[in-house]
Design brief:
Layout: E1 9-11, E2 22-28, H1 37-51, E3 54-58, H2 61-67, E4 81-84, H3 88-98, E5 113-114, E6 121-126, E7 130-133, E8 139-144, E9 150-152, H4 172-177, E10 186-193, E11 200-205, E12 211-217, H5 230-243, E13 253-259, E14 262-268, E15 273-274, H6 275-283, H7 293-319, E16 322-323, E17 332-334, E18 340-342, E19 349-350, H8 374-388, H9 417-427
Antiparallel strand pairs: 1-3, 2-4, 2-6, 3-4, 5-6, 7-8, 8-9, 10-11, 11-12, 12-14, 13-14, 15-17, 16-19, 17-18
Helix pairs in contact: 7-8
């Protein structure tokens, strides 16, 4: 693990990253909004302490929310705790011992193998962070093969093991259960977009040969800043497409299917390219150092035509009582004949009773207009400006200062005294050492952060002792020496630098 990655995790064993080098990892995913998370962590930690298992877990609800957000890394999404058994026997004991505990809302982990009908997952990978160069010349995570050579630690979207590894017999049933579902009647041709919430694919229906778009949603991943997951937004898009059926700028909805735990919307495939790509593949005059007047006039006519089309689209949506919610060049398609169409109705909501979700294109989202048709009016004005000066992202609203007492989504209530004390200690650049608590002791890899950001149900701490000076001897905070006045050699017996011709030979 890279040094900057340690921040997100809390460790029950200070050396679990270093030994052993490779083996099976057992993971325990949970719903990021599940209020049982602290109890789940407490139960698993108790089991790990009893059986001397190394473990790591996400340090708090806000970190869990960020780790499962829409554009979080897919390889780590859905994981709350990770256990590091030393061998196959210990792996089986851990899976059996933890399988009976109460579970919350579950969702698949792409690279891992589910253990029976539980929220426990298994993956083979390196325990220590190592790197090697792959065939494409990229530096990637690595593990050691039997010849002690570093090879890429591949994290595919399905469970897999290296060629030299034999899957334990007690996992054979789960491995055999994997495979392509027979009732999935679509052949994937290519991926159009990826996110933690799911992908967007161009596919073909084997029944009639029709080209379609599959929009995928995985539970409970792809969270926005309000904690809404991808499946909830997919259902919203489905309902809106049914409500708006008719206009040629709205994709037709063909079907809504569920495969395993993933859900898919089957939509019309719109021929053409995205507006942002269309403009900057040669159409925009800013791509030329000295465009002639004819080129400028042609582009102005194109930009005015696109602006009129977008205005008509927004007016039609508002007439139907709907707010598009995320108008930007990436959500507009240009057909070969020049007609525009809208895609991605995920953030769309009812103009009277709904409100904007926590997603939006930077530079096209208003900091104050978050409900009603004014949201689209602002984005439409940004689109008109974008056609001529495509720098609207510089006008992205700054992060607003929250009122006192505001808590981020998924934080789980008011801050505890432990959290307040931890924040005060961080601001001072120090860490607290609590007797008997190794996880809170200074450590160069932990940087003095403790794992007490979850509610006190995990670890009620006694009053802190005197804080130490730093979390690492080589990173000790040194008080800067400051002097008033301009730079220069100090005056003897006086304060501040000596001025030319005004030096002193003695003090006052």
């Amino acid at each position: 693990m890279r040094p900057q990655d340690y921040e997100a995790y809390c460790r029950a064993d200070p050396v679990f990253y270093d030994d052993p080098v490779r083996g099976e990892e057992s993971r325990d995913p949970q719903d990021p909004q599940d209020p049982q998370d602290p109890e789940v962590i407490g139960e698993v930690l108790a089991y790990c302490r009893e059986h001397r298992l190394s473990v790591k877990f996400l340090r708090g609800p806000v970190t869990v929310l960020a780790a499962n957000s829409k554009y979080a890394p897919r390889a780590s999404s859905g994981k709350l705790l990770t256990l590091y058994p030393r061998d196959e026997a210990e792996l089986r004991r851990a899976l059996t011992g933890l399988a009976a505990r109460p579970d919350g809302r579950r969702g698949p982990i792409l690279s891992d193998l589910r253990w029976r009908d539980t929220v426990l997952y298994v993956r083979y990978g390196a325990f220590r962070q190592m790197y090697c160069v792959n065939a494409a010349g990229e530096t990637v995570s690595a593990l050691r093969d039997p010849a002690d050579a570093l090879v890429p630690d591949l994290r595919r979207p399905v469970f897999s093991v290296p060629d030299w590894v034999t899957v334990p017999g007690f996992l054979a049933e789960q491995v055999a259960a994997q495979g392509r579902p027979e009732d999935f009647t679509y052949d994937i041709e290519r991926a159009l977009h990826f996110s933690d919430g799911g992908g967007v694919y161009k596919a073909r229906d084997r029944r009639d040969g029709r080209g379609v778009v599959l929009r995928e949603a995985r539970p409970p991943a792809g969270l926005d800043d309000r904690g809404t997951d991808a499946v909830t937004r997919l259902h919203r898009e489905r309902d809106m497409l049914r409500r708006l059926a008719g206009p040629d700028f709205v994709p037709r909805l063909y079907d809504h299917v569920t495969v395993w735990e993933h859900e898919y919307l089957v939509e019309e495939f719109i021929e053409g390219e995205k507006l942002e790509r269309h403009l900057f593949n040669g159409a925009h005059p800013l791509l030329s150092a000295a465009p002639d007047q004819e080129t400028l006039d042609a582009y102005v006519r194109t930009a005015l035509g696109f602006s009129d089309q977008l205005t008509s689209m927004m007016q039609e949506l508002h007439r139907r009582g709907v707010v598009f919610g995320d108008l930007h060049p990436g959500n507009v398609m240009v057909r070969p004949d020049g007609r525009l169409a809208l895609v991605d109705f995920e953030p769309t909501f009812d103009a009277e009773s709904g409100s904007a979700c926590g997603l939006g294109g930077p530079g096209f989202v208003c900091a104050t207009a978050r409900e009603g048709t004014s949201l689209d009016d602002y984005a439409l004005a940004c689109m008109r400006l974008f056609f001529y000066l495509p720098l609207t992202f510089l006008n992205a609203p700054p992060r607003r200062r929250q009122p006192p007492g505001h808590r981020p989504p998924g934080h789980g209530g008011p801050p505890t005294e432990t959290a307040r004390r931890t924040r005060r200690t961080r601001r001072a650049g120090r860490t607290q050492r609590t007797p008997g608590n190794r996880a809170a002791s200074p450590d160069p890899r932990n940087c003095g952060r403790s794992w007490t950001h979850w509610p006190p149900v995990l670890s009620p701490r006694p009053p802190p002792s005197a804080p130490t000076a730093s979390c690492h001897p080589r990173r000790a905070l040194r008080r800067p020496v400051r002097c008033r006045g301009r730079a220069g050699p100090p005056r003897r017996g006086g304060r501040g630098p000596a001025r030319p011709g005004q030096g002193r030979t003695g003090g006052r």
